[in-house]
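Lab manual, section 2.4: Encoding a predicted structure.

Procedure: take the sequence of the chain (245 residues), apply the prediction step described in section 2.3, and record the output as structure tokens. A sample record is shown.
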Amino acid sequence: MSRTNVMRAGCLVAAMAVISCGPSFGKANPPKPVAATTTLEADRGRVVFADDFKNTRSGWTTGTSADGTKTSYTDSGFVVVAAKRSADHVLHSPYALAFPQISVSVTSTTGNSPKGSAPGVGCSRGPSEKTIKYTFLVAVAGGWELMRRDTRPGAKAPATVLKRGTPPATPGLDPIVVEGMCATLADGKSTRLVFFVNGIEVADVTDKVADLPNVGWFGDLIIRGQKTANTTVTVTHFEVRNLVV
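Recorded output:
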């Protein structure tokens, strides 16, 4: 799916004056990016895009894709039905402004989807489909997985599992919140990856890619399907935050 829908974001900047023993003007605090040792909470950052799917014109792609994935707005939320196939389906968010450090979160239910299917989120480096991607997934009746994908031509390691573990909650009839942070550090090559499930941190790793593209991150919705049965995920909230505060 192409990233064709662009949502224009506006910024409101407030200036504050500080008066002490005579007229003087305070300076705005410098931006504070995430560093290697920064303590991170799930709610860090400024929300730049949020969707509860009440507006059917919010920009998500609907219909049936080439791989058989069906997407639609419904009264219950944004519904993704992945056909019987073991694959990760990437749905680009409508927000098309990249940042060097972002968090992406999704709240969803999976109903009676098969074991191993998984809702999650991803970070894509730049708008190209041929790039570096990180995915954060929590499987039905399974564990969580943090993976790097390199979809560039000639990539030596197209798919690398960085870490796996047991989540504090798993997808099902009750909503689950999956959040992934992708914060490229000052060297421009290392990215700190922090994984939260229902607000609980499960992973904090740093991955280095020597030739990481010199562009920012976009947020994606990721759905992992299984060949045993259709996977149905109902998304009720999706959010992207700029982690530089």
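Check your result against the sample. The chain has a mean pLDDT of 90.
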